[in-house]
Each structure stands twice: as structure tokens, then as C-alpha cells.
Amino acid sequence: MREQLASKGGSPAIPPGTIKPWPPVDDTDRRMVLDSLESTTHTFGPNCAALQDEFAAWNGNRFALTTNSGTAALHMAMVAAECGCGDEVIVPAYSWSSSATCVMQHNANPVFVDIDFGTMNIAVDQIEEAITPKTKAIIVVHLHGLPVDMEPVMAIAEKHGLRVIEDACQAHGARYQQRKVGRLGHCAAFSLNQNKCLCSGEGGMFVTDDEAMFRRARTLWSFGEEVAPTGRRDYHVYAMGWMYRNNDLTAAWGRAQLKKLDHYLEVQKENAACLTAELAGTPALLLPMAPEGYDHNWYNY
Hints:
This protein has helices spanning about 25-35, 45-60, 70-80, 100-105, 150-160, 210-220, 250-260, 260-280; strands at about 65, 90, 110-115, 135-140, 165, 175, 180, 185-190, 205-210, 295. Helix content is about 30%, strand content about 15%. It is an alpha/beta fold. β2, α4 (about 100-105) and β3 (about 110-115) form a beta-alpha-beta unit. It has a seven-stranded mixed β-sheet with strand order 1-9-8-5-4-2-3, with helices on both faces.
């Protein structure tokens, strides 16, 4: 046992340089990014279109739009779910700020529901009492990479005619009853920020299986236009729109990282199991839990 903590001047248990920056970068990343750099398209380009197709195939969704952030994808989900001025959207009281600010961005009101302390996710048994005649949607956040208990959430939504938006920004590859997150609600948002399991520096992804929701989200994504930037644009604005598209260079790196994502997730799972075993029995320490039927991606431990 060390006599003095490193924070008090003792020798660190982990030598400097042991922990490497995330994500790992190899020749695949370098080649794809440099190929994009040397191309002639640096806005929404062929790598963006390919990333959308590849991510949709990887996650099992019909439609995907690559965005400049997970926050942008959440705002698009508001439009997809037809939330607007005066509507109420249920959100968990503990999450990243974008889970609630996306609601306010579209002039709706977030209604906070407490969390279940064991999972740190929304307390599903408290959702129904928060529903009012103004409620339009429920945002569930698969926080730290652990899925929400989605079966009762979807039953509540069906009973009250609500849309369910999955904030899966931290939960790439996590599963609930063998189904990947992003396929459990009506639409979902993912983040590709630097510290996420799938990293492209910055970026995000909006996904859905509903074509009408996809079309509505796309208007916000590209200046309120109804035609994708790869199509023949008429430059007519049909709704309030932002510029939430991704760019080709970022998408190229995202594609390279997506090829390795399944491997990363397996390593994270192994590391989490190892850490749990080492920490087992530590007095006064509460370890993270993954209920039976939930497949954690261990974005956070």
C-alpha cells in the first residue's frame, strides 16, 4: 500500500502516458480523412451519404441523417414528433442539458420526471402521473449507456397517443431485450462527439423508421428545405430551418471509426467486467447495475 496519495505528492499508481487519448487512430482513419480532404466536396458530400447508410444498416434503422451534433439531432426529433409552442415534453430530471434544452429550442416546455436511483435513468413508474392534456412526447435518455426500461414506456405512450424520442447520445450499441437502442421508440438521436463510443470529433445522427418523421426532421436539418442537399434543390423554404448538416471530412472519420465500433464495445464490456470484479466488496461503494435483459455499452462506469 502506498504511503502517500499521488494528489499529495506521492508516486502515481498509473504512470504518465499509460492512458491513451480517445479514440484510437490508425491508418484506416488517416486514409479516409485524407481522401476526403483531397476531394472536391467539403460540405455535405459522399462520405456523409455513406455514413448515413452504413449507420442505418449497423443500427437497423430505415432512415438516418448525419448532423453536426447530437444536440442538433435532438432538436430535429422535436420537429419529427410535431412538438411546438405550448406543448409539454416529459424528460428525465438528470441528464445532459441538451435533453431538456432541445424542447425549449422548439418553444415547447420540458416537464421533469425523477430518476430511478439504481439505474440513473428516468423513473418509468412516475411518467404517467406527469402527463397532462398538453403532453406531446416523452424523451427517454439511455444515460451512461444503459437502456431505459422501454416496454412500459411504449405502453404508456400508446395509451396516451404520445411520441417517444430516444436520447441515445451515450448509448451506441446498447440493447434492451436484444434490440439496439434507437429502434425502440419512434425516433432517436446519437452523438459522435469526441468522447463518445463512436467518435468523429463532432457530429451526430438522427434515426427513425417512420418516413413522415424523417421528412419533417430533414426540413429543420437543411434550412427548411424539403429536398436533400444531394438532390436537385429549389431553394424554397417551407418551414423554420437551421443548418444542422454534417460535413464530408467529419463523416469520413466517422465511417472509419464505425468499422471498429463493435470491437470497441466488446473491449469496453470486458474492461467493465474486470473493474466490477476488482471493486466487488469495497465498503460504502455502490457499483453500477445492468438489470437482466439490458446490455450496457459502458460509455460511463
